[in-house]
Amino acid sequence: MRIDIISVVPELLESPLNHSIMKRAQTKGILEVKVHHLRQWAVNEYGQVDDYQYGGGAGMVMMCEPLAKAIEQLKAERPYEQVIYMTPDGERFSQKIANRLSLMGNLIIICGHYKGIDQRIRDHFVTMEISIGDYVLSGGELAAAVVVDAVGRLLPGVLNDETSALTDSFQDNLLASPVYTRPADFRGWKVPEILLSGDLKKVDEWRYEQAVQRTEQKRPDLLDS
Ligand code: ADE
């Protein structure tokens, strides 16, 4: 999978995408992430990519031309399934959307800044708008990193244990069950006996019950859906 990210602060994406599992995904050649500085498509030699908004009001708006040129240049190089705009008024990101995106080949992600991007880019180029939650970040970069991470770890071969993404929270509308590691007794706090029993069927049943219980307690809304 290839993801092209268009940003005015590409530095914000460096660390989250170049460590741990995202780094491994790229080193293995399973995921390719390219971050493009929008200023290379600026409208003048001062690197201008934003301007005052029509109708007045505080805050700058990201201009059409640099974004249109960036998207068109990328699209001339390869086909893209989605042009995604990260914005607090987009569709709420979820495991379901991550699953869907992980099946795609090439994606463009646009990170907004200031007051956002000119509506005409949203109308004519953007095919999907994603919010990572009901709060406003100072730019779309951290939100884009969240999406790339959640999608990237689902790509076959990225996680060492292929099944481990399947038992994640949310994968089947249930939160994950509790996990334990050695020692079996820490300060008198014991690991549930069943996990030490070696009876895999019983362990599976226990985990399922725990997941249901935990979901009922913490996120009953998941069970309603
Ligand atoms: N840009 C600013 N806030 C955002 C959010 N909550 N989700 C996605 N992109 C954003």
From TrEMBL:
Main location: cytoplasm
InterPro entries tied to this protein: Alpha/beta_knot_MTases, tRNA_m1G_MeTrfase_C_sf, tRNA_m1G_MeTrfase_TrmD, tRNA_m1G_MTases_N, tRNA_MeTrfase_TRMD/TRM10
Enzyme Commission number, as recorded: 2.1.1.228
Broadest EC class assigned to this enzyme: transferase
Cytoplasm in keyword set: yes
GO biological process: methylation
Catalytic activity: guanosine(37) in tRNA + S-adenosyl-L-methionine = N(1)-methylguanosine(37) in tRNA + S-adenosyl-L-homocysteine + H(+)
Binding site for S-adenosyl-L-methionine: 112, 132-137
Keyword presence, Lipid metabolism: no
Gene Ontology terms, MF aspect: tRNA (guanine(37)-N1)-methyltransferase activity
Intracellular or extracellular location(s): Cytoplasm
Keywords recorded for this protein, A-Z: Cytoplasm, Methyltransferase, S-adenosyl-L-methionine, Transferase, tRNA processing
One Pfam family linked to the record: tRNA_m1G_MT
Chain ranges of the tRNA methyltransferase TRMD/TRM10-type domain: 1-224
Subunit structure: Homodimer.
Family to which the UniProt record says this protein belongs: Belongs to the RNA methyltransferase TrmD family.
HAMAP family cross-referenced by the UniProt entry: TrmD
Role played: Specifically methylates guanosine-37 in various tRNAs.
The protein's name in its UniProt record: tRNA (guanine-N(1)-)-methyltransferase
Native source organism of the sequence: Flavihumibacter fluminis
Primary gene name: trmD
